[in-house]
């Protein structure tokens, strides 16, 4: 039994383009197919939004190589014992599971076929779990084609009595197949297993409830609160203006967790950045995407007042980073501290940041905690800080679960070569040997002390 599928329900509901952004490193063509899906379902049925319908259509599409096809890679991650493999999928899972939760649940018999003899894996009376999404049909005729099961050689046909099937015909790339989708982590009891001869094996399954939830469900209240991308929380623009008006000029303006969305950023720019000329702007815990970030980036150009910008736990993504670093590369600003923690940033976003650090001469603190940065991103940062940047003093990379022991050598080289760096936080990553090896470094490398390096639990350079 695998661990339950958890974590996705805490993610914000994003557009399809943003939801697939973290998947680009593993599915290079996914953005192209996401575009095709949205173009094909501009008038979605069943009360779904454009993005929700397109998320289902994208799942139903196939392309080569099969290993880089979305449904194949997603189901492989869902079946993996290492639940960290699901991390880049959370935004997409949130979107498609929200979409599926809006469709009627059907109690019916459906069929599924594979070109293998699976009878040994399904013994009568046993309980099994299908951890991946499962495409089925209510027409046995569909299974006869060679693509699914064919009529010769070894093959298995499942007859499934399901309680939670979702008919996705109105949202599938292949509507003629009348596809019924079974949600990931569905549990079944094996009712019967029959050898029909001529290579055909029949297995009858009945969906049953699990004694413990195997996958988080999207609650109706969460759907009402999160699914709408319309500005439900901040329609009263006067209230936002009044909140900013109460703040002192050239001071700290705290707009954290105010349910701000992209359309609110124009007010933030005009009232906080331009009129109040704030020195410290807190925008963490909101719903700002790359669209709002692009507005902020334009406002920072030629701004000589803002010193600190906090965008933690928003929906910035790699696209938003690209907009922001374009301004920060120019040095026509005074920004010294930038937080982009918990924004779904991948190594692609790090590439944009690295190019910015080559020319930026104002930034001294950079927070990138809780993103999807891997060893490759660390190597990129270490290289630029070791050779082409002389101003950054503090770098925060904690809670990036894809950073492993492979990052130790690049980080050590960076520490030796980047003299200005005083703090480097990288705890809660996948670094099993980091502390031990750094302690060895501390004892064996005289330059560690010469560089005024102080080793703490992970490490801080002060």
From TrEMBL:
Instruction: Tell me the classification of the organism that encodes this protein.
Output: Eukaryota, Metazoa, Spiralia, Gnathifera, Rotifera
Q: Recorded E.C. number(s)?
A: 2.4.2.31
**Swiss-Prot/TrEMBL keywords:** Glycosyltransferase, GTPase activation, Leucine-rich repeat, NAD, NADP, Nucleotidyltransferase, Repeat, Transferase
Reaction catalysed? L-arginyl-[protein] + NAD(+) = N(omega)-(ADP-D-ribosyl)-L-arginyl-[protein] + nicotinamide + H(+)
GO BP terms: nucleocytoplasmic transport
- What is any Pfam family matched here? LRR_6
**What are the recorded GO MF terms, alphabetically?**
GTPase activator activity; NAD+-protein-arginine ADP-ribosyltransferase activity; nucleotidyltransferase activity; small GTPase binding
Q: Per its UniProt record, what Gene3D superfamilies does this chain match?
A: Ribonuclease Inhibitor, Toxin ADP-ribosyltransferase, Chain A, domain 1
Give the source's domain of life in one word: Eukaryota
Give the record's family classification.
Answer: Belongs to the Arg-specific ADP-ribosyltransferase family.
InterPro entries, per the entry: ART, Leu-rich_rpt, LRR_dom_sf, RanGap
The species is Rotaria socialis
Residue runs in coiled coils: none
Q: What is this protein called?
A: NAD(P)(+)--arginine ADP-ribosyltransferase
Q: Name one GO cellular component term.
A: cytosol
**Spans traversing the lipid bilayer:** none
């Amino acid at each position: 039994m695998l661990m339950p599928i958890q974590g996705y329900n805490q993610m914000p509901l994003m557009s399809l383009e943003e939801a697939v952004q973290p998947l680009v490193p593993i599915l290079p063509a996914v953005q192209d197919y996401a575009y095709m899906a949205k173009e094909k379902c501009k008038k979605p049925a069943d009360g779904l939004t454009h993005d929700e319908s397109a998320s289902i259509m994208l799942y139903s599409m196939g392309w080569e190589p099969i290993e880089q096809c979305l449904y194949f890679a997603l189901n492989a991650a869902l079946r993996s014992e290492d639940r960290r493999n699901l991390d880049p999928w959370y935004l997409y899972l949130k979107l498609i599971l929200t979409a599926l939760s809006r469709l009627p649940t059907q109690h019916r018999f459906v069929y599924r076929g594979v070109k293998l003899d699976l009878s040994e894996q399904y013994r009568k009376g046993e309980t099994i779990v299908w951890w991946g999404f499962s495409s089925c049909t209510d027409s046995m005729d569909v299974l006869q084609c060679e693509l699914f099961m064919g009529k010769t050689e070894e093959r298995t046909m499942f007859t499934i009595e399901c309680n939670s099937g979702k008919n996705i015909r109105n949202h599938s790339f292949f509507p003629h197949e009348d596809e019924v989708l079974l949600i990931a982590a569905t549990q079944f009891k094996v009712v019967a297993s029959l050898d029909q001869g001529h290579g055909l094996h029949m297995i009858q399954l009945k969906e049953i409830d699990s004694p413990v939830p195997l996958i988080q469900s999207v609650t109706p209240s969460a759907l009402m609160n999160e699914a709408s991308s319309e500005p439900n929380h901040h329609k009263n623009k006067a209230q936002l203006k009044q909140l900013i008006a109460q703040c002192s000029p050239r001071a700290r303006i705290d707009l954290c967790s105010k349910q701000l969305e992209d359309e609110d950023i124009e007010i933030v720019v005009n009232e906080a950045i331009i009129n109040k000329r704030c020195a410290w702007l807190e925008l963490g815990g909101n719903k700002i995407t790359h669209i709002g970030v692009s507005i902020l980036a334009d406002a920072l150009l030629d701004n000589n007042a803002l010193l600190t910008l906090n965008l933690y736990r928003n929906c910035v993504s790699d696209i938003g980073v690209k907009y922001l670093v374009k301004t920060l590369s120019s040095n026509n600003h005074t920004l010294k501290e930038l937080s982009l923690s918990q924004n779904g940033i991948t190594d692609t976003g790090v590439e944009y940041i690295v190019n910015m650090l080559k020319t930026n001469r104002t930034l001294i603190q950079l927070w990138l905690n809780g993103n999807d940065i891997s060893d490759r991103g660390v190597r990129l940062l270490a290289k630029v800080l070791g050779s082409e940047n002389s101003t950054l003093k503090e770098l925060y990379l904690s809670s990036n679960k894809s950073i492993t022991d492979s990052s130790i050598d690049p980080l050590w080289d960076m520490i030796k070569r980047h003299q200005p760096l005083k703090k480097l936080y990288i705890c809660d990553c996948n670094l099993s040997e980091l502390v031990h090896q750094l302690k060895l470094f501390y004892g064996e490398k005289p330059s560690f002390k010469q560089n005024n390096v102080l080793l703490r639990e992970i490490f801080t350079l002060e």
